[in-house]
Amino acid sequence: MGGTDPAVGYRLLGSTGLQVSELSLGTMTFGGGTTIGGVDAKGADELVGMALDAGVNLFDTADAYSGGEAERLLGRALGGRRDEVLIATKVRLKTGRRGVNDLGLSRAHILDAVGASLKRLGTDRIDIYQIHITDAWTPLEETLRALEDLVRWGQVRYVGCCNYPAWQVMKGLAISERHDWTRFASMQVHYSLASRELEREIVPLALDQKLGLLIWSPLAGGLLSGKFVAGKDGPAGSRRSSFDFPPVDHERAFAIVEVLREIAESHETTVARVALAWLLHGEAVSSVIVGARRLEQLADNLQASRLQLSDEELVRLEAVSAVPREYPQWMLEHPWDERMTSASHHGPAGSERGPAPDSPSGRGSERKPPP
After folding, report:
1. 276: Cβ contacts below 8 Å, ≥ 6 apart
2. Measured at the alpha carbon of residue 231, what is the angle toward residues 230 and 237, in degrees to the nearest 5?
């Protein structure tokens, strides 16, 4: 697929044996007429075709995107190549049908929703079925049992969660272990140079529990694309100009962009590619989801796989984008234990050391090799 020299590399999804492209195509732009969407059937076919030609094998969607239209367009665009790729979709939000149970994570809604997604996608299974966001009304056990049944019935192969706090992910993993149910293989999270808060809890959890991170909005809604300049209006028609999401500190983001721009110039590449390449240096990251409305935008993003950043460049980006230490992190980083000053640095017997205290992301200049 994608020729003998694909543009993108591949990584394992967490602790599974499933290989996913390190860049994946998101379909939130497919269908509808919103500031995020607007890609029609022809445009979806072209974007999916370009992604396939580059070696992308993971396509992310959701039943709620454009009221289900995104799933329909994705299934149509993949056509006869569906068996070559992995489809990830989501359940939780309303899809436009009427009824008080047309949302949430109850068993009833999940079983209805998976059938509807399979029909729209034109497939007999979903490769990664993800909880879109938490549901305070439904016991987590009920949700996880429903997902387990879908795996047993062959309708779903792997399960994941999106936008969950670390403690709830860990609770879900414990419930699955107790009942011998299928555990989360992945977490889909917002992560970018302008939003590194998840390094406090979620990244350490992912490394410890061997969960693959799937990254959404890696360019902070376009703010890290290089098209925005402090004190000036954004490009006409750009999403961030009319829909200021996800929320970020703009002053801090523009300082990050200036460093990105300097690094990009030294590599004779684009600001967006550098921002994406930084994420690809993250040890816990399985795939970075890129979304596009135009072919030239997608073509540029896909080249980020080929960009290798130096140690010095990573240090500069880490410094300008660092988030303040919060309790208990600053307390834990104090050298309380004199054993940590020994030459061995092996940690307690039988333990596996995680990332160094000054590198919560576990990021290094050498990317992990493909499987």
Report:
1. 23, 218, 219, 288, 290, 301, 304, 307
2. 85
21-79 pLDDT tens trace = 999 999 999 997 656 778 999 999 999 999 999 999 999 999 999 999 999 999 999 99
Which tens digit of pLDDT belongs to each residue from 182-200?
999 999 999 999 999 999 9
- Stated as kind and residue range, the H or E segment containing 24 is strand 23-26
Length of the chain in residues, anyone?
Answer: 371
Q: What is the chain's percent helix, strand, coil content, to nearest 5?
A: 40, 15, 45
Element (H, E) at 241: helix 239-242
DSSP string, 67-125: GGHHHHHHHHHHGGGGGGSEEEEEESS--S--STTSSSS-HHHHHHHHHHHHHHHT-S-
Nearest CA to 71 among 30, 13, 33, 132? 30
Spatial CA neighbour of 193 closest among 259, 125, 253, 243: 253
The sign one gets for the Cα dihedral 277, 280, 282, 285 is: positive
* φ and ψ of 49, to 5 deg: -60, -45
Gap between the Cα atoms of 144 and 239, Å rounded? 35
Question: Among all residues, which ones are annotated catalytic?
Answer: 65
Name the maximum alpha-carbon separation found in the chain. 64
